[in-house]
Sequence to fold (396 residues):
Amino acid sequence: MKRISHYILIFLILLSVTPSAFALEYNKIGGRPAFPREDNPRTDSIFVHTLEPGSLQDEGIRVINNTKEIKNILVYAADSVSSTDGGFACRQYSEEKNLVGSWIELEQTEITLEPNTNQIIPFVITVPENASVGEHNGCILIQEKPETGLDKEAGINLAIRTGLRVALTVPGEIIQSLQFTDFLVQKRKGGSFILSPIVFNNGNVSLDATIDVVTRSIFGRVKARHGGEFPVLRGEELRWSFEMKKPFWGGLYISRATVTYLEGHGELGQDIGSSKVLETKPKIFFSFPTIIASIIEILILFIVLIIVLNIFNRRKIGRWVRDHWVDYRVATGETLQRLSYEYQLPWKFVAKVNKIKPPYDIAGMIIKMPPASRRRKVTRKSASDTHQASARNKKL
Fold:
């Protein structure tokens, strides 16, 4: 059975400006550019040069062993390759070098370092005569030499690598251009969402793109914000995947992505020019509320419905009173309770319509009452009962 070499690739390639020079390392073995330039802080962690076709550039990498053991270390160049998300990665040791990896010639490819020591390995970059205008990327990688070697047939090896980016620009007509190709909103199991703006670099140099994704409710309140600064390599598509947690209340949401980059080419790390901003069309999507939120919303809706119905009924009754009730002068001996009984109405309702307050004495008043046709005849007994009820209410 054919044995396949397997590498755990850990790239700590610094693609942003670093505040100070330090060793790029993993597990205390690493390196950094040996001759960083003061005019470009990116050269603390990246080899950055602008070179004409056919030119040569002397350089060096400082290899560092910060362990307490003697280490046999491999140092080698490789072509760059796009990662699955469009970012920067490096090819494996065993892969053929056809691009920038083949432009780099190291003075040594294997060294032995004592504990807590470092050594500079010089190398030369030779740009081919037919190199195209624009940016070209490669890698220089450092790793501890596995005991079984790195051949394709060497079986399974676990090789932890650290890499430094080599960014070379061939001068000429530099094109800087990004464009949005899509903006996807995908719902995940559990109710969260993945927001995925996608951009394509159709220029000939890499660009540091600042992405900003803002999601708002339909009322304008910001629900979530995602973003950051990421390099987009020439000719490559970069897709971000930002997770937005399931909204507690649910509802309609509007998400919009913007990307900002500089127009006006300077060497990598020496940004010049003005900012250009691109924006996607808004994406509108719906999220169901959580179970607890649903219960709360149903209760609120029920209460609001009761209030609305109550207001509607009050207004309906008000119109009925306004359109049908007439003025009535209260005769001597008539009480609010007696009139209410005769007109078959709750006495408190009559009092409220006429704004009569305690002690509800209405003798001689002109009040609003239904038409006389609704008034029923009262027998002596019923009149007596009404009078007694009136007396009891006055005592209360």
In short: The first helix runs from residue 100 to 103. DSSP finds five helices and 22 strands in the chain. The chain has three domains: 24-170, 178-289, 292-395. Residues 226 and 298 are 32 Å apart (CA to CA).
